[in-house]
Amino acid sequence: MAKKQKAAIDNRHYDVIVAPHITEKSTMVSEHNAVVFQVASKASKPEIKAAVEALFDVSVVGVNTLVHKGKTKRWKGVPYKRSDIKKAIVTLKDGDSIDVTTGVN
Cross-referenced PROSITE patterns, in alphabetical order (predicted)? Predict the structure, then answer.
């Protein structure tokens, strides 16, 4: 069996993946071998795939992205808008897993 070659970690990979997105729904998705990350708004699917493979040493099968538009809220009668958030649902190869509670090496 060929040994899997680890991808080189580039500083740009740290800029692509902002944080893990931990909610009830993302926990339910993790049962289907997927992880949800908050990513940079300009990040593309190939960049996200390369960053996850390099940082966590896993094989990525697919990447789905969505942009969660910020809500308009009011504070003391003054309206403001929350920031837009781009999320990536990263599906991993069977047998691979990421523990988002431990962090990155």
Answer: RIBOSOMAL_L23 (PS00050)
